[in-house]
Please model this.
Amino acid sequence: MSRTVSDKMANLRPSAVREILKVTSDPSFIAFAAGNPSAETFDVSALKKLCDSTIDTSALQYGVTEGYEPLREVIRARYGGKYGLVNAGADDVIVTSGGQQVINLAAQSLLNEGDTIICETPSFIGALNTFRAYNARLVGIPMDGEGMIIDRLEAALKAEPRAKLIYTIPTFQNPGGTTLPTERRLRMLELAKKYDVMILEDSPYFELSFGEAPPPAIKSLDDDGYVIFAGSFSKIVAPGIRVGFSIAPKWISAKMIVAKQTQDVHTNGVFQRAIYKWLRDFNIDAHIAKCAELYAEKSAVMLRLMDELFDKRVTYTRPGGGLFLWCDLPAGYSGSALAESMTEKKVAIVPGAAFDVSEDVHNPGFRLNYSVPSVKQIESGITLLADGISAYLAK
Amino acid sequence: MSRTVSDKMANLRPSAVREILKVTSDPSFIAFAAGNPSAETFDVSALKKLCDSTIDTSALQYGVTEGYEPLREVIRARYGGKYGLVNAGADDVIVTSGGQQVINLAAQSLLNEGDTIICETPSFIGALNTFRAYNARLVGIPMDGEGMIIDRLEAALKAEPRAKLIYTIPTFQNPGGTTLPTERRLRMLELAKKYDVMILEDSPYFELSFGEAPPPAIKSLDDDGYVIFAGSFSKIVAPGIRVGFSIAPKWISAKMIVAKQTQDVHTNGVFQRAIYKWLRDFNIDAHIAKCAELYAEKSAVMLRLMDELFDKRVTYTRPGGGLFLWCDLPAGYSGSALAESMTEKKVAIVPGAAFDVSEDVHNPGFRLNYSVPSVKQIESGITLLADGISAYLAK
Model:
């Protein structure tokens, strides 16, 4: 009787992301299904040098849970200064094992079983599964081309007395590729205050802008301590090193630190120091600009071919940055059926159902990633996908 | 109203370990309070070389949650072969972010709120706080010089219908310094089966033996899938890199992998590969023997001085390995009062209350670490401590 899993984990399956990783690791597939940054953006020789100069007995010893203090300080300086994300005196920075851990620490610190999380649908699978693992109730708010529809958010807040958290990826959303305009950000914040609900702003892509800067972060618009900001070095340095950060009001940061102690004590000490030196000594803005330029080029190739070849009934977003765009088949068609049919042609896409809060297999959407495939793969893959869509819609 | 922390975190304070780290980072203190391995045991140049040869685009990209397959394979080979810890076909290995994460993943995968954990008292604070963070009920079983008193374990299992897990550090226990004899291990396993309760065997120190090998791991005595083994490279390579592992039956490993996905996606890719190469190319047994020799010497100095100088009413364990020993003042005296009085003399010890399942401030015990202080510091510190004890007992 005791050899049974916890109720909260009983129904949680390995996420579709795992299956995606398996497919994308098959090199014969054209991988539009990845969530990875391009390996071309990894500065291997810089990281080798940084590690070599960093590994010493201090980096190898246990460290404090909230993170290596000089790294916390440069994060405060950069993200507070350039983007206004730190409310000095009121906020604390924690170095985390990737942005994913911020989501988990916030959930552990805030949620009682049965509390409600309100989020975009579709949304990031890793976050949805984290909330499910805390036995939270998920309420998905539909999006249009500009992200979460705020009137629907207010209706949900009214209907959900146990709403505890609004989870949002406002900038270059995963999987939507949408960006919430400033006016909607202000309204979301207003509603959070009106209904006394915290916002978890997950923003791993916001610095990867293709043109003009995106609207200010919700965190930077908030003076009243309603926002937890989840940041990450995964998409601007490398994900394998697992370094991210949170910026959050002190009362919640204090609990997140205790939560982190119970999870992994602290984040890898060598890479905390390597990122510190990177931020201190390298021109990170120039590096990010190079990453963004690469993704801007690839997304432009993808969109040009989609405009040319896709059945006109298919709609899609035109992201201003980030790694993803989202396509919708006409009503009545299923992204899952399309994704399955494309595996025969060795083109991997993620069906919308994977990101759907209610996991509806009839979701007509699918996500495309352009950071991982080469320009050549994008050309052949989109051609195959356009043919596959036409064949499916002709059925 | 929503801006309140979760019930499970509301009463969880930063652990005494945090305070310990603060005190031990003050270099003017003699640090008997640490939980760290000695920095002398870190092979800085080997790790530099391993990292340099390891950092490539593959190590920097996202990896699979269960861990880098070649590392899983060498863990299976070493810990399955030499120690019989892997039940081939029935068990899975997961690479984790330190041994701490194994405890958390097991808790997340097994515990419903209100379930009972049975453990030694005193026990490892990091584990106790993890169980508290899942709103588990802790039942502490007293120890004698040979670890958990098994008759008391059976009484607790009878009395606790919601017992879900026995948490134990059977070898060179933290903080007790005790080692459970084979006969007690067999009885614990028998009771786990009789009452259908899983065992979480936390064993970060077992390879650091001062003389003859300790009794076989409980995991190696179990053919029926009742044991989750938590292993760690923190004390035999370095803790700052945060690499550990679990060996557990497949049904629970599958859920632990899903849980890990929600925590940090995967463990640092560079150090997973560095540890793989370490295990493959270096003589890890020779390295471990050197670490154990250092700790054997230091503990011998400490015990010799304690035998000579301590008030005869103080009792203590004589560990056969690991990092810690445990002292008990006579009944009616408090380890907390002694620890506080010693801070004036700049000697840091951890009061037993910190490890006590019921956090009883009247606990007469305290823990001494001998891995961190130098032999010279052990000599002056134990002299000061002996004087402090005499003064306290004379009051």
Summary: The first strand of chain B starts at residue 30 and ends at 31.
